[in-house]
Amino acid sequence: MPDNADILRLESLQVHFPIQGGMLDRVLGRPVRAVRAVDGIDLNVGRGEIVALVGESGSGKTTLGRVITKLAQPTGGRMLFEGRDMTSVQGSSALRPYRHRVQMIFQDAYQALNPRHTVFDIVAEPLRSLRLVENGTQLAERVSEALASAGLNPPGDFFSRFPHELSGGQRQRVVIAGALAVRPELIVADEPVSMLDVSIRAQILQVLVDLRDKHHMALLFITHDLPLAWLIADRIAVLYLGKLVEIGTADEITFNPRHPYTVALRNATPQIGGNAGRAESPALQGEVPSAARVPKGCRFHPRCPLAFDHCREEEPPPIEVGPQHLSACWLANDGRSRSS
Amino acid sequence: MSDAIVPYSPRGRARAIKGFLGQFLSYGGAQVGLVCLVFFLVVAAMPNILVGPLQTAINATGEFLEPPSSQHLLGTDEVGRDVLNLVVHGARISLTIALLATVISLVIGTTVGMTAGYFGGPVDVWLMRLTDFFFVVPSFVLALVITPVVLEVIGRGRDILGFRPSLFVIIVVIGLTSWAFVGRIVRSQTLSLKERTFIDRARVAGSSNLSIMVRHLLPNLVPQIAANGALVVTGAIYVETSLSFLGLGDPLQPSWGTLLSLAQRAGAASAGAWWYLGAPGLCVLTVSLSFVLIGNALEDTFDPRRRVIP
Amino acid sequence: MTGSSQDKAPLLEVSGLSVDYGLKGVSSRAIDSVSFALRAGEAVGLVGESGSGKTTTAMAIAGLLSPNARVSGGQVCYRGNRLPIEDDAAMRPHRWSETSVVFQGAMNALNPVHRIIKQIAEPCMLKLGMPRGEATARAGELLELVGIPADRGAAYPHELSGGMRQRVMIAMALACRPSIIIGDEPTTALDVITQAQILKLLGELRSQLNLALILITHDLSVVAESCDRVMIMYAGRIVEDGTVAEIFAKPKHPYTRLLIDSIPNPANGKKMIRPIPGDPPNLVNRPSGCAFHPRCPSAMGLCATDVPSFDKFGRSRVACHLHRSSQEDKVAAHA
């Protein structure tokens, strides 16, 4: 269970990608437009905590994951890891201590593995690059240990195999083993099971949950699937168009959502045995607007069934609606629950 | 846990190479190309054993422009030298020039293309302008300009890295004028490889830019480089032939191009001395063709769409 | 279409269909003795993991098998007539006019250099012989039908969002008034909310136009919400087939049960994952007997040797030795 000390803290973190304007725009001094992929996010992850980031495509969830793993550079705000400001640290040698403690699991294991490297080389890469082992014996030991933790047994059988010689589930286990090898404290998992067959998903989720339970690793689980987030996470953060709209414990978000977007997301999710909320609330119209044209006021208002004038003018701040439960909606504390 | 540890062995790599060779050799083109190439390489490796020392006007063994006979299998030239002797010695010069020029071309092209593609931004822009420049520089003009300068500086008799200056110049000129094509191909391939997730993974694993380029990009570029390298050799052979034909070759170390040039000047065509023009011409054609065949087979072997992935 | 007798007779009947793929001299069976019937207006979900043969089954019905595929047994009948599913040219009059396919990747299936209205009008001109003006008018109607304002027809595919493109694909599929729509993972690439919109649209069109729908998907919960019947495929065979209500409430095949258990379902409140051990089967080396036996928690000796045949339970059927024995036991107990 989570400790009090946060391992990761994001303070109004921002990632804006400038849109290349034409020569004419520059001459005329037109303002540089930007894709506001991540637009001011506050989030903390405790030690050994599993936090799920839920959102549709364009919500900025993947960009946020890339910022935390230092694959993208934030354009504003701060990112603190164990209290140290990591916002502007760059370069492979300066980042070595950070990489040692923060690792990533990728969505498409086939893409994430170099087709010309063997499983051993793939899992050994972080250990070699981060200089965590002294000799070959130690290296082989650590690689075996990581493969075994990821459920590839016996590890020696996989050493000299190439990615294309593995099944989809085994490939994802190799990616996990590569992240585990350095014994990190935080793992960012970007849709780690969405490309896998249903029957394999549960196996991989089991491996991830075991990591937290046995090694006390914190996990930031990025997904578009609310039930999956409910299953694996302690807390769920819902993203819409680069901003957190709601955050709370997994049960609160699933059974007592207080933001109309979360409600819409829940109701749109197909479920075995039918989705109880579906019939009562109308399906959301339209699609997520482009992050280059974020609507004024509450960014959800053009699609929101409950929007009123105030929503079009001013963006709502996160409002506390319960213990550990925040919702960025003017109606969040409107007495009645949004779930009905 | 310790009982599960198996010492790492390069078994996987050996298996992969074996599989690759097996597939490569299954192409008819690759077989023909390899046989031809090996034949010429053997010939080029030991000309003295096969046909004796290079003949000059002084130690020429035959009459003038003698047609092929049992004595002179490929006839003789206008000063009585044995054409077979000349062609075999020419193989050595031609192949050396072509292969060394290719090495230069591939090294520069790969480095420039990979750096431009990987770093992008201004690095890419400037390196690509440089590539464009070398793309349009005609090798003939460059050779015509450089050769006299080098000869002036070094002197005709000295040698550079074991080559006579004029040969060295030709190697450098061909290398410098043919890498732009390689650079463009490598850059475009790098651009698409760079977007692959395994590059991100390598970065998260703490690998430096250099290590990502050497350990992740380069091995995935090898197929492209190898397949195009074979075409670069072909190009180099032709450029060398043309340069020598124009008289930029070294008459003391005759290549096939030089021989063609000499034959032309001796009026071999009008004199009906088909053997004098035909022998070096056929050699150029055969070697070029075998490289093209090998290049195509390499490309087919590497093409992931044809590779069997279980 | 309106006659009640026609509604009762199956619109499409697949019997004993087997398809082999030949790759480098190795032949592997993609689907094995697949039989089922589809009635007019019925929505059937074809569910399976990769390699289960669900896509091959659907492509065989539409006559869109790849050149290295070979029908090695069985037949497909449409309104009582045998379809020449192996002959691409002979299937052409049938395809689009009777059976249409909506593919997963809408971007790849649309031509990027033509306006969408033109691409929808084209099948109307080619198949129905409409003059250009009439075809364009019909294309506009079709766009409205799938919830796109007709004036958006002037857009190019890249100007539309993923959900809109999928709607265009559906409009194209409807162009020649087919009676069967095959959706090959039509919502897999879409976001949850867009997926709900598309599934709703398909449901509406189905009742409006009395369309039969074959929905191919790996996602059981999508089927649970949008189909009447579900067929579960594993390693090229149908292992269970029945109404959605029956199968999700009381799955009989161990594979179906495990599959349902491995989907997180907040509705039942149980936060647990039950992994199915092992890997999906390899088609070149298919396990003997029941293909699921190496992963099955209830496997018996018989399962490794004998291929289970179907047993009927009301409106559903299941291919599992477990149920056969229990039935026989019951019979024995009664006797």
From TrEMBL, chain A:
It comes from the Bacteria. Transmembrane segments: none annotated. It is found in: Cell inner membrane. It is a peripheral membrane protein. Coiled coil: none annotated. SUPFAM superfamilies: P-loop containing nucleoside triphosphate hydrolases. The keyword Metal-binding does not apply. Its main location: membrane. Pfam families: ABC_tran, oligo_HPY. GO terms for molecular function: ATP binding; ATP hydrolysis activity. Keywords: ATP-binding, Nucleotide-binding, Transport. The keyword Signal does not apply. Gene3D superfamilies: P-loop containing nucleotide triphosphate hydrolases. Belongs to the ABC transporter superfamily. NCBIfam families: oligo_HPY. This is ABC transporter ATP-binding protein.
Automatic annotation (TrEMBL), chain B:
The chain crosses the membrane at residues 20-46, 93-121, 133-154, 166-186, 217-239, 273-298. The keyword Repeat does not apply. Residues 91-295 form the ABC transmembrane type-1 domain. Gene3D superfamilies: MetI-like. SUPFAM superfamilies: MetI-like. It comes from the Bacteria. One of its GO terms (biological process) is transmembrane transport. Keywords: Cell membrane, Membrane, Peptide transport, Protein transport, Transmembrane, Transmembrane helix, Transport. Belongs to the binding-protein-dependent transport system permease family. This is ABC transporter permease.
Automatic annotation (TrEMBL), chain C:
Its main location: membrane. It holds the Pfam family ABC_tran. One of its GO terms (molecular function) is ATP binding. Keywords: ATP-binding, Cell membrane, Membrane, Nucleotide-binding, Transport. Gene3D superfamilies: P-loop containing nucleotide triphosphate hydrolases. GO terms for cellular component: plasma membrane. Residues 12-260 form the ABC transporter domain. InterPro entries: AAA+_ATPase, ABC_Ni/Peptide_Import, ABC_transporter-like_ATP-bd, ABC_transporter-like_CS, Oligopep_ABC_C, P-loop_NTPase. CDD domains: ABC_NikE_OppD_transporters (cd03257). It comes from the Bacteria. It is found in: Cell inner membrane. One of its GO terms (biological process) is transmembrane transport. It is a peripheral membrane protein. Belongs to the ABC transporter superfamily. This is ABC transporter ATP-binding protein.
